[in-house]
Amino acid sequence: MEKHIPLLTPYKMGKFDLSHRIVLAPLTRQRSYNSLPQEHAILYYVQRATPGGFLVSEATGVSVTAHGYIHTPGIWSKEQVEAWKPIVNAVHAKGGIFFCQIWHVGRASKFEFQPNGEAPIASTDKPITPLTLQDGTIEAFSPPRRLATHEISKITNDFNLAARNAIEAGFDGVEIHGAYGYLIDQFLKDSVNDRTDLYGGSLQNRCRFALEIVDSVAKEIGPDRVGFRLSPYSDCLDCHDSDPERLGVYMAQALNQYQILYCSMVEPEPVKIDGVLHTFHKLLPMRKTFNGTFIVAGGYDRERGSEAVREGYTDLVAYGKLFLANPDLVKRLEINAGLNKYDRSTFYTSDPVVGYTDYPFFDQSGH
Ligand SMILES: Cc1cc2nc3c(=O)[nH]c(=O)nc-3n(C[C@H](O)[C@H](O)[C@H](O)COP(=O)(O)O)c2cc1C
How many CB atoms lie under 10 A from the CB of residue 341? Predict the structure, then answer.
């Protein structure tokens, strides 16, 4: 059996000695009641932690306006910081390296989640087209309010405070969530950003908000504890760009100036050809541009992940759905075991066990 597949080789990410290349991708699970991380998250993260393994937390709100989905955690209050501590400690006790993904949803929110029922804030006042969910229900977000230029630094500061809080909670660093159509992406992409001030128009202006956050957070906690996540090819929440490669390369280049630890990028959706899923390594120009650790995600399995590391296309591979459904994914990939299938219907349900910590380990599932 091929034991030392490239995914299982050690890697030094800044000051962190990783024992393998398999990363827990950030996964929103909506089990943090009233935005407070719960005790059941200890087991969930510990199940997925390995000695020298790198984990990124679920997206975690930076402020009271950052919130858009029920039971997603926050890290703006003292109480939330305290609630994160036992979770982070438990991951550390198992030898894991744990970053907190810090997040502002922007216009992906509703009046009911906002202080005093106010409008969600965004780069624009254009609303998101209502989404039809898998069960046929329609998810409609509330019309947003365009941030005035002078308000933007306040949001940057919220990211800053959240990063400081994450360190206080014991996290090893933070990942700034610039992906999937949330606030930062609402500034980055030209389908949404219709501003005429310094934060809109040219590519440089659209990236300004993201880079001000990076600058500020890197100064606050040190660049060696900061990652940035970007999904140039995604069109989630109506956020798409007319030139994703140019956007991705510009950001990769700009991020170099801050010497942050890593850049995590999401592949375009894999395409099925003759029954086989293909990814096209569209992130290669960004990989070549960025000087720090590069992480890819999106449709990776054992074979494609190994190939990506072997070819030098990436340093690390983040696994989302496979890690969600396989708490011992690292072990399973190592021994080339079968994988549990994920159940989409429980991705975002609030049960503290079902679809969360009850996916079987390899020796329990018997295959
Ligand atoms: C249930 C679920 C929740 C997710 N939550 C987040 C999140 O909080 N932050 C984020 O950046 N990406 C999130 N993602 C995207 C994943 O991190 C990952 O990029 C995506 O699932 C593609 O990787 P995969 O094909 O290995 O699942 C989520 C994905 C799923 C399935």
Answer: 11
> Which residue has the CA at smallest separation from atom 28 of ligand 1?
27
Catalytic residues: 182
pLDDT at 3: 54
How much distance in Å is there from the Cα of 58 to the middle of ligand 1?
A: 9
How far apart are the two ends of the chain, measured CA to CA in Å? 17
Helices (H), the chain: 40-48, 78-93, 152-169, 183-188, 203-221, 244-256, 284-289, 302-310, 321-325, 329-335, 362-365
Q: Which atom of ligand 1 is nearest to the CA of 59?
A: 8
Model pLDDT for residues 21-44, shown as the tens digit of each residue: 999 999 999 999 999 999 999 999
CA angle 343, 346, 348 (to 5 degrees): 130
DSSP 8-state code for residue 187: H
C-alpha triplet 162, 114, 106: angle, nearest 5°: 60
Q: Which residues share a beta bridge with 190?
A: none
27 alpha carbon – ligand 1 mean position (Å): 5
DSSP β-ladder status, 145-146 and 173-178: unpaired
Answering whether pTM is above 0.85, one says: yes
Which residues form the pocket of ligand 1, taking CB atoms under 6 Å from any ligand atom? 25-28, 58-59, 101, 177, 179-180, 229, 266, 297-300, 319-322, 347
What is the band of 262 on the pLDDT scale with cuts at 50, 70, 90?
very high
Is the pLDDT at 364 greater than 80, yes or no? no
Atom 2 (ligand 1): residue with closest C-alpha?
A: 27
Which residues have C-beta within 8 Å of that of residue 286, sequence separation ≥ 6?
A: 232, 248, 249, 251, 252, 263, 265, 294
CA 200 from chain centre, in angstroms, equals 24
